[in-house]
Amino acid sequence: MRVICKEDYDSASRAAADIIAAQILLKKDSRIGLATGSTPVGAYKRLVEKYEANELDFSDVITANLDEYRGLPKTHDQSYRYFMDTNLFDHVNIKKENTYVPDGMEQDAKKACSDYDRILEEKIGRFDLQLLGIGGDGHIGFNEPSDHFCVNTQCVKLEEQTIKDNARLFFSGDESAVPKEAYTMGIGFIMRSKRIILMATGKGKRDIVEKAFSGPVTPYVPASVLQLHPDVILVGDFDAIPETLRQG
Ligand code: PGA
């Protein structure tokens, strides 16, 4: 694993955006896995700036997102489709039909998951680059701690901590507004990516980053599986990345 540790959120976001930009410059039709949450917002801002400065062309890029709340329509301001549109897709020249997010409005969970797995197989095959955040409980995508690593897209019951963490983003700010279930890409497809960037910033992530990258590989800390991937870049700031993981 390579570690890029910057002094603050802004520089970490620039570093992550630079890696994504380099990927697109080297391969115009890159398949890129994208994440939502507060962490990648700064990186998406930088990518939009690069696009506006004519440094990047998204016209052949194909993306697929990790997850979506079950039951939220695309138009809901906390749906992950809405997040992607407003933070990135609406501001660059990506073709919306080349951007995939699980369908939160498909009530039949089995169908929602198999439909998404089919899209991943047919349209992506394997990500050139997958961007990840990390949940306070170690989740990647919405793959919550469990007794096994889930390979395929699944419908998950969100952990209390995840619901608590995400409530701040909902209009009323209370936990009852947060959906209790989500569809998430499985760990198998994430691990198939050629390269993975995991972004972690802020003091709140320090303990889980330590557990995930210095502790045992266990499905009870889903991100720990990344220790077994041959090309992971951990990008973060001094608050989130413990000294023991920093290099150079
Ligand atoms: P955050 O979420 O970026 O809002 O901290 C990360 C995650 O849950 O994966």
Which secondary structure elements does this structure contain, and how are they paired or packed?
Blueprint: E1 2-6, H1 9-26, E2 31-34, H2 41-52, E3 62-65, E4 67-69, H3 80-87, E5 99-100, H4 109-124, E6 129-132, E7 154-157, H5 160-167, E8 181-184, H6 187-191, E9 196-200, H7 206-214, E10 232-237
Parallel strand pairs: 1-10, 2-3, 2-6, 3-5, 6-9, 9-10
Antiparallel strand pairs: 4-8, 7-8
Helix pairs in contact: 1-2
Residues 37-39, 133-135 line the site of 2-phosphoglycolic acid.
Low-confidence stretches: none
Straight-line N-to-C gap: 13 Å
Oligomeric state: single chain
Mean pLDDT: 97
Structural class designation = alpha/beta
Count of DSSP strands: 10
**Biggest sheet, spatial arrangement of strands:** 1-10-9-6-2-3-5
Report the C-alpha radius of gyration, rounded.
17 Å
Task: List the helices and strands in order.
Answer: EHEHEEHEHEEHEHEHE
Strand content: 15-25%
Largest sheet: 7 strands, parallel
**Helical content class:** 25-40%
Bound molecules: 2-phosphoglycolic acid
How would the global form be characterised? globular
- Specify the number of helices: 7
